[in-house]
Amino acid sequence: MRTSLDPATLDTVESHLAATDRHLATGYPGDDGSRQPVHTVYVPADRYHAGLARAWGDRAREILAANGGTQALLAAVGVREDLRESVGALVEDKLAREPVEDLRVDLEDGYGTRDDEEEDRAVLAAAAGLREELTAGTATPFLGIRVKCLERATRSRGLRTLDLFVSALATSGELPDGLVLTLPKVTTVEQVEAMVLVCERLEEALGLPAGRLRFEVQVETPQVILGADGTATVARILHGSRGRVSGLHYGTYDYSASLGIAAAHQTLEHPAADHAKAVMQLAAAGTGVRLSDGSTNVLPVGEVDQVHAAWANHGRLVLRSLARGYYQGWDMHPGHLPSRFAATYAFYREGFAPAAQRLRAYLHGQEGGVMDEPATAKALAWFLQRGLDCGALTTAELAEHAGCGPADLAGLLGRSPA
What we know:
Distance between the termini: 46 Å
CATH superfamily: Phosphoenolpyruvate-binding domains
Strand order of the largest sheet: 7-6-5-4-3-2-1-8
CATH topology: TIM Barrel
Shape: globular
Radius of gyration: 23 Å
Order of helices and strands: HEHHHEHEHEHEHHEHHEHEHHHH
Number of helices: 16
Mean pLDDT: 96
Oligomer: single chain
Helix content: 40-55%
């Protein structure tokens, strides 16, 4: 076969693209395939105690029982009738077994401004409570704190809280794999660079492995979406964090308020929210950084019809986020747990059969109604893996309907089998 490109030309191409190759490998490594929680529960530090997650689960079941039970919940959320038995059983099991997946002790807005001695005590009590649960094996899979932001007025307090918490937790035992630190109200790349520096110094002082401490960034200001130079600051943040940023969390109310949106219209589905989250999604694509939607302040309290309306609203918002590629959100009240899990399980149960059928056809070379490419096969594998991770699906169902197992999904996703 005749070719026309000489070796020197090919070497020139390789040399020209070497920097691009390095940039893609380091800046866009892809998702690491580990479990992502379906929600984060934020609890003010003065209300946190060891066993709080279990208490939330108990309270969620009380609310469920007092407002018509599981079937009333599923009807309010709009779960298909043919799925209600399976989804209902999953919700009841989840509330009893693992009602909270990700617990964040809040030292920021939910906690407010206290004198330094009081906040110091709250931080140390939180670290002690979390260590107690870790030792007992009752801790949530993911846990951590949210500190005050790095703006001038709260910077020193936020850094002291971070230092106290990490130091106390690290000196009382091994840091948990699911440790999460949350940095709110980020506006500039420099604030994230400062947080990176602080993490490095804490690792050095505490003898932790380099890179052990990572943090979430809360997207709550317009400047982090669109900087003064016209660029998407959030993208620059991710690529300037040296791999320290683990997640981007949308802050519904701070972001909406900063744009002058009236309180009655500050929701997850406002066009301004959708724009911010689309920018976040574009910035995070391929980086391995996880995304989380925000919360709703419509609580399932009051008369039965009010609770049902709140469940319907919350379930609709959860499904909306899932359909848009946001697989995590915030829950602010125990009554949100039933609707969170009902909507999440319904999403995966409803999509399971067609996704399994398409992946089976792809893996086994079968003809079907859709001709999927490798990228789509990976997306199908991600859908099924997320369903397994949250408990909506089982490996037996995967084998029966998709003709594969977790190892096959891991191969498509480039992750290590569990």
